[in-house]
Amino acid sequence: MTEASPAPAGRSASSVLRSPGVWVWAFAGWTLAGLLILGQQALHRYSLHQPFWSGQSVGPVLASMWLWAAMTPPIFWLADRLPLHPPRWKWLALHLLLGIGSAFVDAVATVWVLNPLLGLGRVPFLTYLATVLFICTFSYAALVAIRQAMNGYRLAAERRLRASELETELARTQLQALQMQLRPHFLFNALHTVASLVRAGEARKAVSTLSELGDLLRWLLEQDSPQLVPLHRELDLLDRYLRIEQVRFQDRLTTQVEVEPRALEALVPSLILQPLVENAVRHGLAAAARPGRIDVNVHVEAPMLCIEVRDTGLGPSPTDRQGIGLGNTRARLERLYGTDHVFELRAASEGGAVAQLRIPFRQAERS
């Protein structure tokens, strides 16, 4: 793995120093820590039967806390400039030296600035430094660790967002590819049907079929390719498709669509019904010489929406289960629902094939 460039971290670091929120939170956090220390000292004096409150300790404690509040954004800056992931031992050693350096800063500010301002007696510099060396180094390390954790969480959130965007884009691309695959197939079959009607002298029916085809293509071209749509929109597309196929097969095709009323507003994947019915037409009825029937049933078995497409054709073959249309359907369902769905194509006991789909029942929001 190549070592990451520190440039992005540098840009992040400069924003840390310019961010008012970081300074405010540092001040609030260290003030809270100071109040907790003062509370602990008060309880300790109370346990020793001493005065509960000592005003002389308030100033030094809060001054020390606010000093570290002022040091926190620069330490965050250093943590961004010298990230420890992936492991960089030279930067770990440098952070150790900087932690010791923070103790020197604390000692200089306290002994030569804060104590004289607060009217406290001067403490020998080295004595005070030895007293605070460990706690200051530990505080520096804790701040670096906090900043590294913040950056790690932010990067993980950005990766999840990018992954989600890629998943959405992939699903959208698959849907667009399915639409492009669908349009030429409709166009070829419909135009072939129209040509047959013209040759048979049925001009009125040919014009009607062309009108249905135009409406269908307009419906497909005008869609914004949402992944999930209300079921009634899918039924509208299916109705247009079946009217064209009815002209093509004449009396050989009988269809029936039964939908539970409360399922009409259920959200379903866009272009999910038509491929299932098309598969029944192409591999069931079109391959059989006898008339056939296609039944579509949609109902709710909470918490699932159940869709069933049944035909009386020749039954499924291994190639049917692995066809492009059903393969696309399976891939989209896995992308949208993961393991929370069931999709199967099997032979019906009375002959023909049954395609069954079960997906979570979710209703579209009403505008």
- Approximately how much beta-strand content do the residues carry? 5-15%
Query: How many domains?
Result: 2
Topology as H/E string? HHHHHHEHEEHEEHHEE
Number of strands: 7
Summarize the amount of helix as a percent range: 55-70%
Strand order of the largest sheet: 2-4-5-7-6
- Main β sheet profile: 5 strands, mixed
Unreliable stretches (pLDDT < 50, length at least 5) are 1-13
Radius of gyration based on Cα positions: 36 Å
Structural classification: alpha+beta
Question: What's the end-to-end separation, in Å?
Answer: 50 Å
- Mean pLDDT, to the nearest integer, reads 79
Q: What characteristic shape results from the CA principal axes? A: rod-shaped
Number of helices: 10
Draw up the topology in text.
Elements: H1 7-18, H2 20-47, H3 55-81, H4 89-118, H5 125-199, H6 203-222, E1 228-230, H7 231-249, E2 253-259, E3 267-269, H8 273-285, E4 292-301, E5 304-311, H9 318-321, H10 324-337, E6 342-347, E7 353-360
Parallel strand pairs: 2-4
Antiparallel strand pairs: 1-3, 4-5, 5-7, 6-7
